[in-house]
Amino acid sequence: MALNSEIARVTERIVVRSRDARAAYLRKISAAASDGPARAHLACGNQAHAYAAMGPDKDALVQARAPNLGIVTAYNDMLSAHQPFEAYPALIKEAACKAGATAQVAGGVPAMCDGVTQGRPGMELSLFSRDVIALAAGVALSHNCFDAAVYLGVCDKIVPGLVIAAATFGHIPAVFLPAGPMISGLPNDEKARVRQQFAAGEVGRDALMAAEMASYHGPGTCTFYGTANTNQMLMEVMGLHLPGASFVNPGTPLREALTVAGAERALEITALGNDYRPAGEVLDEKAFVNGIVGLMATGGSTNLVLHLPAMARAAGVILELDDFDAISAVVPLMAKVYPNGLADVNHFHAAGGLSFLIGELLNAGLLHPDTSTVAGDGLERYTREPKLLDGALHWLGGAPQSLNDKVLRPVRDPFQPTGGLRELTGNLGRGVMKVSAVKPEHQVVEASARVFDDQEAVKEAFKSGEFTEDVVVIVRFQGPKANGMPELHSLTPVLSVLQGRGLKVALVTDGRMSGASGKVPAAIHVCPEAAAGGPLARLRDGDLVRVDAADGRLDVLGIDLPARAPVSVDLSANAEGVGREMFGMFRRTVGDAQHGAGVVV
């Protein structure tokens, strides 16, 4: 199938826009690769330090004739998604040994759980943790002892931070090894119902706690289609996972076999062999376009509208919001996974999962088929599924049709003809909305504004019964410069209750919403942010605001907004406590949201 003309057009404009940056990047990684295995050029004292604890592997490391894998791990056992990584280094080292190679844990990176910090001060460090992770991985790889790297990470900021590091060290091949989703627990719609009942005061905290514990109940990624699982989809569609690796549950023989196979493949694609695949060549313009296509086709997390531009810039590729909007216009929504539907990611995987979805998108000309991946040339490999047959790993043809059309549909019969995100522009700035979970009748809201400077004030107004009419809730001073751009996911139950009462409700903010949010229309990531004097800082209670996802507009009506002076608020409370003191430099130097809200790139 010929490539869709709009996908080709968007790709070409990204190539043109990125030409100078990408050329400089490729020169940089080519120069880094030109001397061969870096550890061979280290002084004897440098090498002795690096190999001192490696026991029987010392001789192989000194000779530098076989690859040495660097393991960058985000393991901790507070994150359910990352707890399985505890066992991965031993598996990887054993696989390397059997292949006549070596592996070392190069370093660890922090990994925070947004589920723990939702609505808490720690959430103000969440977005910045992506850049800390990239920096920490950079420190790990700076020892220059590795022929390839394997990255152990799953969740919200961890994978984007690791990709930024992998791109920065783009002369080194990179394979990402996932941990997989936890098995299904309490259905997501039931969890959401209890949350709304608690917000409305209909049930107590004991019922809320019981529901939450039944939802998040074991090792593995949370099963809704939020940022963590969107990350896993991206790593597969962009060719950094082995085919079919994303959504295999932890603690299973297939999961272990894929981990071993990932380590083996990382050894095969180093510069010491004949299939050298540096990460920087995998992470090209086509790979990022494919990632955006996957995001739209699955109704993925809005957080990736922040992360993909930051990841791309690390590889010399420049993405803009209108690229997302243009791709969304031609890519159908093929998946309904909570919060877009009732199913969880295990149901999506069972229905045919990514192998079916990728095959459909390839056949429709909506994905670039000719990309380089860690598995080999061409994305067609990712239409196959991994299977264990007599203890051996094989990749076989995927499901020829969806096994559950309530969860996963073909291109010819999608849930909706366009993708999951819309760019919104107007006199209030530029933002995005996740429309895949918002019913059409809720996608246009014109109502008086209620303006708040933090999310707690919204909750207090709700408890006081102040929302009795249609309303556009403005939550400003939540951008990266103001307070690190926390997710405002804890507002979802409140806004959902109001919408459920028959009110027209929308949220407009320069902050973020979680990947688990979406049933209430939310214009998010609005730029310029209020702390930079953006239009939201000029709004007042009672202004008539129109949020229009159908036409892609975000406007205040009948107001000469530039004639008003922007308000300023005291943000000192966001500058200290729970480690926020250490991130003042990040708040001062961070870029704007539409370009990824990056610090290190």
Structure, explained:
The protein starts with a helix and ends in a 12-residue tail after the last helix. 37% of the residues lie in helices and 14% in strands. Helix 1 (5-33) packs across helix 15 (321-330) and helix 8 runs antiparallel to helix 9. It is globular, with a radius of gyration of 24 Å. By secondary structure, it is an alpha/beta fold. The protein has 21 helices and 16 strands. It folds into 2 domains: 5-183 and 218-397, no CATH class; 421-595, Glucose Oxidase, domain 1 (3-Layer(bba) Sandwich), CATH 3.50.30. An 8-stranded mixed beta sheet has the order 9-10-14-13-12-11-15-16. A 4-stranded parallel beta sheet has the order 2-1-3-4, sandwiched between helices. The protein has a two-stranded antiparallel sheet with strand order 5-6. The longest helix is centred in the first third of the chain and has 29 residues, at 5-33. The mean pLDDT is 92. It has helices at 5-33, 44-51, 58-63, 88-98, 114-117, 126-141, 158-168, 188-199, 205-215, 227-237, 253-268, 279-282, 285-298, 303-314, 321-330, 345-350, 353-363, 455-463, 480-483, 492-500, 584-589, and strands at residues 68-73, 102-108, 148-152, 174-177, 372-373, 376-377, 384-389, 392-397, 421-426, 429-434, 444-452, 471-475, 505-509, 522-527, 544-548, 553-557.
Topology:
Blueprint: H1 5-33, H2 44-51, H3 58-63, E1 68-73, H4 88-98, E2 102-108, H5 114-117, H6 126-141, E3 148-152, H7 158-168, E4 174-177, H8 188-199, H9 205-215, H10 227-237, H11 253-268, H12 279-282, H13 285-298, H14 303-314, H15 321-330, H16 345-350, H17 353-363, E5 372-373, E6 376-377, E7 384-389, E8 392-397, E9 421-426, E10 429-434, E11 444-452, H18 455-463, E12 471-475, H19 480-483, H20 492-500, E13 505-509, E14 522-527, E15 544-548, E16 553-557, H21 584-589
Parallel strand pairs: 1-2, 1-3, 3-4, 11-12, 12-13, 13-14
Antiparallel strand pairs: 5-6, 7-8, 9-10, 10-14, 11-15, 15-16
Helix pairs in contact: 1-15, 4-11, 6-7, 7-14, 8-9, 8-20, 10-13
